[in-house]
Write a structure and sequence with these properties.
single chain, 178 residues, alpha+beta, six-stranded antiparallel β-sheet, 6 strands, 49% helix, globular
């Protein structure tokens, strides 16, 4: 994995997750006279931000452990809206495009963000976080095992299968008892 990708992943997971915990905790402490379900939802998103932070810290300790990182990125991809439920979650940075109520929307945001709504008068629509998708693709591509052909090329083996001995093996050794 390239160093720039590794450092970007660490920044958006550890930094973005921690930022998300901080903004959610601030909202939780400032909330007054809210229904209990709102507190539960805020604690749930705080746990999600904690999961993102943990996935980054696990990745810092062992760059081969990407399973949690993949899940942490995947939960940041969808953005859905309907009169029944709306969901959006992003840690660190987001570049989103969406189609809501027949209109296209797009934008970016530096920082962490979440949205959850139940039974609100919101338009139908869906969107994606392109930044999370890009990081997911890059992580998967960077951690795939090389194919047999590229492994053979890296070792200097050719694809030809001739039975002609090389000049090195046909030359007698000079250090023998000959």
């Amino acid at each position: 994995m390239k160093p720039w990708l590794r450092l970007t992943l660490i920044t958006v997971t550890v930094g973005g997750g921690f930022t998300g915990i901080a903004i959610t905790l601030q909202s939780l402490l400032a909330a007054q006279n809210q229904p209990p379900v709102n507190y539960v939802l805020m604690l749930g998103f705080m746990a999600l931000f904690g999961f993102v932070t943990t996935s980054g810290l696990v990745f810092v300790q062992d760059p081969k452990r990407i399973d949690l990182l993949i899940v942490a990125l995947a939960i940041q991809v969808p953005w859905v809206s309907s009169p029944l439920i709306a969901y959006k979650f992003a840690a660190g940075f987001q570049v989103c495009i969406a189609l809501f109520g027949g209109h296209f929307y797009g934008g970016f945001r530096l920082g962490s963000d979440y949205q959850i709504n139940f039974f609100q008068h919101l338009p139908w629509g869906a969107g994606i976080n392109l930044f999370a998708v890009a990081l997911l693709v890059l992580v998967v591509r960077a951690t795939q095992t090389p194919t047999l052909q590229s492994t053979s090329a890296a070792r200097g083996l050719s694809g030809e299968t001739g039975n002609v001995p090389s000049s090195a093996s046909a030359t007698p050794s000079s250090g023998g008892n000959g």
